[in-house]
Amino acid sequence: MQFVHDAALVVVPLRAGLQYAAGVNGVLKAMAMGKALIVFATPGIADYVEDRVTARLVPPGDTASLRGVVAELLADHEQARRWTRALDRWCRAA
Fold it and tell me: Cα separation of 86 and 5, whole Å?
């Protein structure tokens, strides 16, 4: 998991229409490592992340939104730190 450790943020791309928690292992690993997280919003992932609190959700397949959120997080280190602190609290409460 060195690549996650070295990453500035983690993106978990998911296909539209998934009704189960696909990608949850990647989400939980990123959360456990305290990484800022961007996830494609699918119904199954809603139990694991809260948009703009523990992660940023973008519509599946919306590459323009994805690019914008990646750029936003890379430019706003404090926002990324707020999310990682919220992730830490969420993980400890779970």
Answer: 18
What CATH fold (topology level) applies to the domain 2-93? Rossmann fold (3.40.50)
**Helix or strand (DSSP H, E) at 12:** strand 9-12
Q: Where are the domains of the chain?
A: 2-93
DSSP-based three-state secondary structure for 60:
coil
Cα-based distances in Å from 2 to 7, 9, 29: 9, 13, 12
Per-residue pLDDT of the chain (94 residues; tens, 9 = 90+): 687 778 788 888 877 766 667 777 888 788 778 888 899 888 888 778 888 888 899 998 899 999 999 998 888 878 777 777 777 777 777 6
pTM > 0.90: yes or no: no
Which residues face 2 on adjacent strands? none
CA atoms of 84 and 87, how far apart (whole Å): 5
